[in-house]
UniProtKB/TrEMBL annotation:
This is Putative lysine-specific histone demethylase 1. PANTHER family: AMINE OXIDASE. Residues 106-207 form the Amine oxidase domain. The lineage of its organism: Eukaryota, Viridiplantae, Chlorophyta, core chlorophytes, Chlorophyceae. GO terms for biological process: methylation. Keywords: Methyltransferase, Transferase. Pfam families: Amino_oxidase, NAD_binding_8. One of its GO terms (molecular function) is oxidoreductase activity. InterPro entries: Amino_oxidase (IPR002937), FAD/NAD-bd_sf (IPR036188).
Length: 208
């Protein structure tokens, strides 16, 4: 059975008649060398689907081509600082956030300023992109303030967010037909909750 997956999501396929490379099943299969479902992509949605599939009695096999699980949600260590990257949303206007800021102040009284752009700007070098971002932020905070900031790292994450300009359908189909199911934040809202929910929907559609 062939398979294809849209970006940011996963694909689940029934293994009953699926050939394997070299005629032998992958080494990652369970001890009895059998799996009911393949989950391609160990992002948040894929992991959510795998958990729900297992809860429903299926035996999923999760495949990931990257160097770790979690999809776009990662924490990097840069010069001793922890940088969270991905699609988490933290609204500083929420009640209690200001209180936490005073309670958990950095020992060095430093603040992480994270800036996102619309597009990856492949035509610009990292230094040119940093200069353009600094120039724009200078109009907000002033040259002296922005000039005192140290650049830590630039991430260029293609397809970091699905296009959800209104009107938007937050319950896009997960069953594509032919035993194929897809999930990801492009199936629901572009949030962590949407990714988890879409994984559960895809798993439940497959189990039905």
């Amino acid at each position: 059975m062939g398979a294809c997956a849209s970006r940011n999501g996963l694909l689940a396929i029934n293994l009953a008649h699926s050939p394997t490379r070299g005629g032998r099943p992958p080494a990652a299969l369970p001890a009895d060398r059998q799996a009911d479902v393949i989950v391609v992509g160990a992002g948040v949605a894929g992991l959510s689907a795998a958990v729900r599939l297992q809860q429903g009695g299926a035996r999923p096999l999760v495949l990931e081509a990257g160097d770790g699980v979690g999809g776009r949600v990662r924490t990097d260590v840069v010069d001793g600082y922890l940088l969270d990257r991905g699609f988490q949303i933290f609204l500083t206007g929420e009640a209690g956030v200001a209180v936490l800021g005073h309670k958990w102040t950095s020992d060095h009284h430093l603040t992480l300023v994270s800036v996102s752009t619309v597009g990856t700007y492949g035509e610009l070098s990292d230094s040119a992109l940093e200069a353009a971002v600094r120039a724009h932020l200078t109009t907000w905070f002033g040259a002296a303030e922005v000039g005192s900031w140290s650049h830590l790292r630039t991430y260029r994450i293609a397809f970091a967010q699905p296009n959800q300009a209104p009107p938007t359908n937050f319950t896009r189909p997960v069953a594509l037909g032919g035993g194929l199911f897809v999930c990801g934040d492009h199936r629901d809202s572009a949030t962590l909750d949407g990714a988890i929910k879409s994984g559960r929907r895809a798993a439940e559609a497959l189990l039905a």
